[in-house]
Amino acid sequence: MIQLTTAAKLTNAINKARTVKPLVRVAKFGHYTVTNKATGATYTVECVKRDGKRFAGCTCKAGERGQACFHLAAAVGIHIQLATERLTTP
Ligand SMILES: [Zn+2]
To answer: How far is CA 51 from the centre of its chain?
Structure first.
């Protein structure tokens, strides 16, 4: 798992996600499956909040090494949208 601090740390991963355009499915809030449509590879991304800090982890090789992969970046983008909707809808 990596701690999510600034978006700048995810810039490379976000750019890759924009190129690859992986399919992100919401398993449940905080749990996402990310599929690379070109290769069919599917990984699970988990987003958690601990002590007010946000963490995310991916099951791919890069993710297991604690790197911000594009699966993680794609899922975090969706997660932030969902989290914002949760805060703004009663
Ligand atoms: Zn990954």
So the answer is: 19
CA distance 23 to 5: 24
For residue 90, the CA-to-ligand 1 centroid distance in Å is 33
Question: Are the beta carbons of 52 and 67 closer than 8 angstroms?
Answer: no
The pLDDT, as a whole number, for residue 62 is 96
How many angstroms is it from 88 CA to the middle of ligand 1? 29
66: which 2 tokens? 């604690």
Q: Using the 8-state DSSP alphabet, how is residue 25 labeled?
A: E
**Interval between CA 59 and ligand 1 midpoint (Å):** 6
pLDDT over 80 (residue 90): no
What is the reported pTM? 0.91
For ligand 1, the distance from its centroid to the CA atom of residue 82, given in whole angstroms, is 20
Secondary structure (3-state) at 12: helix
